[in-house]
Design goal:
globular
């Protein structure tokens, strides 16, 4: 069992930066891949980034590639999402999720554990 808690969201102007954190409790967190997803009002949940157990492999969609960076510190049971050059269209609730026993995935259904989400609002 893994519990995930996101933090670091807030209000930022376009072009600004935020760093989200996803703190995990539970055993063997380093065995899990972690993904970030986001959901804006009236829209479907969207994949943002994912990272493998060691942090050596990552994957991003084109919409955030070059602007967002996912990383992890297994000693702290924490995964980060550094978001730079933010745009108003990045406004959403951001969720982290964890899965075990699979490779990198952009599919929400592949993830077993989810946090409660943190709001990110980018003003123009």
């Amino acid at each position: 069992q893994v519990q995930l808690i996101e933090s670091g969201g807030g209000l930022v102007q376009a072009g600004g930066s935020l760093r989200l954190s996803c703190a995990a409790s539970g055993r063997a967190f380093s065995n899990y891949i972690v993904g970030w997803f986001r959901q804006a009002p009236g829209k479907e949940r969207e994949f943002v980034a994912t990272i493998n157990w060691s942090g050596g492999s990552t994957y991003y969609p084109d919409s955030v590639k070059g602007r967002f960076t996912i990383s992890r510190d297994n000693a702290k049971n924490t995964v980060y999402l550094q978001m730079n050059s933010l745009k108003p269209e990045d406004t959403a609730v951001y969720y982290c999720a964890a899965a075990r026993g699979i490779g990198l995935s952009r599919t929400a259904l592949d993830y077993d554990y989810w946090g409660q989400g943190t709001q990110v609002t980018v003003s123009s």
